[in-house]
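Please annotate this fold before class:
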Amino acid sequence: MPLRVVVAGATGVVGKRLLPLLRERGHHVTALARRTDRFDEPSADEVVAADLLDPDALRAELRSAAPDVVVDQSSAFSAADRQEALQRTAKLRERGTKNLLDAAVTAGARRFIGQGMTALYRPQGHDVLEEDSPLWTDAPGTWGEVVRAFASMEEELFTRSGIEGVSLRYGALYGPDTQFAPGGDVHARVVGSELPLVGDGVGLTSFTHVDDAAGVVLEVLEGGDPGAYNVVDNEPAESNEWLPAYARMAGAPAPVTLTSEQASSQLDWLTVHQLTEQRGASNFRLRETIGWKPTWPSWREGFASMFGLWPA
């Protein structure tokens, strides 16, 4: 059954993949973005310029759009300065998503699909974590601000009356236009030998191809119970495994290895955390609830495809 769908962050890495999929399914799509000059004409039925930090404008636009479902794919991770990106992301999740949720409820939407991250889980031993694992709300520094903002957003989303709330917790997003793609930040750091292995390199990363992220949104427009879902591939990978493989596929030098002490003096805290103690996530709930299977079940094939090394 066709739905009226509003997509915020429609020019982001997931939003751009999502819009044509929604149109192919016959849904009426209203795209929200801060700028409207980045859209191809057929990508949405309506294109609206809206700032998620302007609650009055959001309410007016959503009343006009009259959505059944509101999807939030907005992001601030494109900022060049990493610290600024984290701070803007925290603000966007805590205030922007709340404004969008308020507007969705006022407009009579039935379901709201928000965006989370599996990187927010509190590190626990060597476990691969499920959705009921605690978020790391007392993490240090700016990262703690980000985790608390996402936690606050999800609490609001899951407890708001009158609407069903779903949070899709993505792993490290890769694929076209992402930081892992040629020209992206991770690619530049690896090619420039600026992203080393640290110690034993046992930090786990769960990866999510942007096409899988967009595809899951389609599946939960009406399906699946409200709540949180990890949207990740089947193979969490330690940094000592995925980083050298990525470098080989990118034609980059093999990553150097630093001790923990060297890394602490040369790298930012968050990078060291991700490479050494971050935990991966399980997609079991999503597979069991809606029968989802990732198009790219392993980052290995996904990376190879990204670099043109996998059959089309």
